[in-house]
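Thread: V-type proton ATPase subunit G, structure

OP (GT): Posting the sequence first so everyone is looking at the same thing. Length is 138 residues per the record. Can we get the structure tokens written out before standup tomorrow? I want them in the notebook alongside the other entries.
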Amino acid sequence: MASQTQGIQQLLQAEKRAAEKVAEARKRKARRLKQAKEEAQAEIEQYRLEREREFQQKQQAALGSQGNLSTEVEAQTRKKLQAMHGGQARGKDQVLRHLLITVWNFPLTPITNGSCFLSAVIASRHYSPNPPPLCVSF
């Protein structure tokens, strides 16, 4: 009997050592999984940062070209405005002269047919000495 209890004790100790080895193997496996997960997260973060950097560079390149485009548009607008103001200044004297000639040569003649009492001539570039009257009827 003593040999049986000793055999049982050996079996129990062997079972205990096997359970400890299994537990240790599970711990090693958990540590390896945790380490692999951390390495994967670090790799993902590094990849994300690299892609973010590339995106920022492309965005700066695109916005930089748009900034140049807006600068060019502003310069063209300024140039066109200056040309318009210059044209306005050059044409101002001609317009005033034409306006004064038109006002001084604007004939007002009464109409005797009874349906109109005022006639006016529409000012044009070519003044006609006998323009058709414009009647206002009431």
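GT: Both are above now. Quick notes for whoever picks this up: The two ends are 144 Å apart (CA to CA). Helices lie at 2-104.
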